[in-house]
Amino acid sequence: MRSSPEFELIAAIRDRLGSPAGGRLRVGIGDDAAVTVPGGATATTIDAVVDGVHFRRRDAPPEAIGRKALAAALSDLAAMGAEPGEAYVWLGRPEDLGRDEILAICDGLAAAAREAGVVVAGGDLTGSPVLALTVAAVGHADAPGSFVGRAGAQAGDAVCVTGALGGAAAGLMLLENPRLGEGLDPGLADGLRRRQLAPSPRLAAGRALAAGGASAMIDLSDGLGADCEHLAAASRVGVEIEMERVPLSPGVAELAAEAGRDRFELAVGGEDYELLCAVPRSRLAAATGGVEAAGGTLTEIGVAVDVPGVRLRLRGGRSLPVDGHDHLRR
Amino acid sequence: MRSSPEFELIAAIRDRLGSPAGGRLRVGIGDDAAVTVPGGATATTIDAVVDGVHFRRRDAPPEAIGRKALAAALSDLAAMGAEPGEAYVWLGRPEDLGRDEILAICDGLAAAAREAGVVVAGGDLTGSPVLALTVAAVGHADAPGSFVGRAGAQAGDAVCVTGALGGAAAGLMLLENPRLGEGLDPGLADGLRRRQLAPSPRLAAGRALAAGGASAMIDLSDGLGADCEHLAAASRVGVEIEMERVPLSPGVAELAAEAGRDRFELAVGGEDYELLCAVPRSRLAAATGGVEAAGGTLTEIGVAVDVPGVRLRLRGGRSLPVDGHDHLRR
Predict the structure, then answer these.
(1) ipTM value for the complex
(2) In this complex, is the C-beta atom of B32 within 8 Å of any C-beta atom belonging to chain A?
(3) What's the pTM?
(4) A23 in contact with B at a CB cutoff of 8 Å?
(5) Do residue A79 and residue B33 have CB atoms under 8 angstroms apart?
(6) CA pseudo-torsion sign A147, A152, A154, A160
(7) In chain A, what are the domains?
(8) Which of A73, B69, B205, B226 could lock onto A135 through a cystine, CB 3.0 to 4.6 A?
(9) Residues contacting A293, CB < 8 A, separation 6+
(10) Per-residue confidence in pLDDT tens, chain B, 330 aa
């Protein structure tokens, strides 16, 4: 973090984001690097959100930008079944991004970190022509085998999702087309926009699925089709999804009808940050119960099969294309 | 990493950057997160380089961009005295950044990682209006107390630098003003440009200084004055530097003379990525010997004092201002 005129700003950022040493954290924000004592095994990921690609400053309140940046990284940890640990944040600051906006972004980061049980242990602030945040996140487990990867699904395993899909894509439609959604209940419309702007990582559900015997897991960031492909390829299986079984977020079906689109297209749209997993049939009841005990829901939507490839089946023998439209631009 | 048309590119990137599991690394690039078994203690940092701020695409070969991104993060680990471990890279890709340029950036990352003994364990590639790389780096030690922080310098400690300073600032002058440097030996001019474009993190020297008893350490990224201030503030001491004792990179004095600038201004210019440290006098010979055994040099350039603040003394009682000009823009 740079030169003297910025000292006051850096201090204000530290006030919002810093944590006292404690638990695994021995030295937090303020040195060249944070010092931790991990123990067991760690899962580490890096993710970024960029203005114009993953959000638009004109649509997204600054708190939501901070929340989304952290959520995107923590969702990867959720998909490993990791216990959340530490986050490291880079903020690229355009010249027109003022102090208040920066601190509001930090408030969003801090709130999301608190909710997730994550410590912001380090960061960097530099100039940048475009507002961007990168978050590296570290999660923990007692041993490497406690994490759940993408490989491990076997033919016959149930394929399941947490929560409901389509909300983030519907929220993006509402943000991009303000005249849409006039027939929607305003509370529902707000909920959909929030799914796009400030998603919640499914950390508790991820840990429950790891403990409950999920054989493979991935978070739904790229879209149901693309993420099924990632899981199928890593596990060397195929995946058949019955789209009619996919739970849709409230308001998605109504908005799709208003826009003249198939509601299931929105469910493959990406950025819902729910978890997709494979679960051996013998563990399905236990896994479902574990997710419910963690405050979530788990729905069986398909099956892993021997035939490679991913099929997103609709009623009547049709299938959806697997490539969702996950971002404002690619 | 995103949708199907990019699969081939992602595979080519993995070929360049990926490492097989081994040692601490249990799962590398390709899952939601990398899995490691750290043992002991970790030091973790995040740093970024952005086109127009830390480099310019028109000046910097793509390999150098990859090298600089990794060096900036690893330099923080060097300043902790950490054993290098894993790096996680985000690449923000503008639409006009082609496949070959991306792979050349990865070649630079891979070469710098190999030289440093670092494994690239994860990454992310997304669209971005501007070319930017963020690197999170994790280093290791047997225990948290083995790392050297910024706090710990005591009045009376010698203040030392590794290597020589001013090369990065001189290299930036050459890149920004192609008519400068005509009187310089071309090999020297190339060396100066390389100090700016593709610095080397001082990992071996940092480990030697941690083992040799350095009481506080920081890397020289912001500039000698600003980084002395960081170390002084964290250690609650003052720092007096005798600029005449600061070793200058070959060619710096000649270029400063040609440009009509004080050569020591270039030495406070930042981005040299050498290490600044405080060493108790009783350990100075051992620390110096340790750095030399690691292939580097250590020079005493000043002293930690009771009076707060940083003074960069020139001959004749004058002082340099402490705020270096560290980047193309702030």
Answers:
(1) 0.93
(2) yes
(3) 0.94
(4) no
(5) yes
(6) positive
(7) 4-146 (3.30.1330.10), 158-320 (3.90.650.10)
(8) A73
(9) A208
(10) 344 557 789 889 999 998 889 999 999 998 999 999 998 999 999 999 999 999 999 989 999 999 999 999 999 999 999 999 999 999 999 999 999 999 999 999 999 999 999 999 999 999 999 999 999 999 999 999 999 999 999 999 999 999 999 999 999 999 999 899 888 999 999 999 999 999 999 999 999 999 999 999 999 999 999 999 999 999 999 999 999 999 999 999 999 999 999 999 999 988 999 999 999 999 999 999 999 999 999 999 999 999 999 999 999 889 998 875 544 443
